Amino acid sequence: MASSVNPTVRRRRLGQELRRLREQKGMTAEEVAERLLVSQSKISRLENGRRSISQRDVRDLCGVYEVEDQRIVDSLMQMAKDSRQQGWWHAFGDIPYSVYIGLETDAESLRTYEPQIITGLLQTRPYAEALIQGALPETSVADVEKRVQVRIRRQERISAEHNPLRLWVVLDEASLRRVVGSRQVMREQLEHVAEMSQLPHITVQVLPFDVGAHPGINGQYSILEFADTADSSVVYIEGVTSDLYLEKAPDVQKYTVMYEHLRAQALNVEQSRQRIEDVAKEYAR
């Protein structure tokens, strides 16, 4: 049974605390790895929250760092226990981007740039089905349906009555023009985007073709921010076989500045909604 505890966030917070203890001790990850007879990459993965961490790992690390306050040890051990519980997405089996879902589930705001498709949180079911089938032609019908269900479940964050996810989307005009599924699917999809863009916590801007070269030319990315100040912002870049998560302040700052330029070059909110509605009408002809 899925737990209300978010294991991804627990791992991140635990990893950050373990890194703080290591740095406070003045030790490198390599030195810690040598003491515990493990690989340096394991220590790095534990600290960045990308690897499940056991209570035994926490106990051993606290021993190396000479943590004398048992309350701190107990707190970290509990975090390790929580981090091994299952989030709601585990009920759907092996999801390739489960780390991202965990972050998105706990995020306070999400800024995303999409150069080719409508962003997942705003996709209709027919659009999502056609998109996944086209992008993953060798995927079984059952796996396509599983992915669609996960995508629809993720959308509960923007439809929540209390504390919904604040979403800011910059869509390249190509995402409006690329026919996914059929013209009817596209018309209904764009009408849905236009409708959702009227909600106070959702902002949608369109980056028109005539802008030419722009800071997002290299592809899609998202910036996740969290309410808890202990959780650093994360830049997420989706890949074909693996994803990239950037958390270092200079990296996040660079992508944030890029996003500000994209927002400035895009049509304003009213113009964007009008452009989306106009293209939707074109699909109705």
UniProtKB/TrEMBL annotation:
Matches recorded under InterPro entries: Cro/C1-type_HTH (IPR001387), DUF5753 (IPR043917), Lambda_DNA-bd_dom_sf (IPR010982)
Superkingdom classification of source: Bacteria
Name of this protein: Helix-turn-helix domain-containing protein
Organism of this sequence: Streptomyces salinarius
Domain HTH cro/C1-type: 18-72
CDD domains named among the record's database cross-references: HTH_XRE (cd00093)
Pfam families linked to this entry: DUF5753, HTH_31
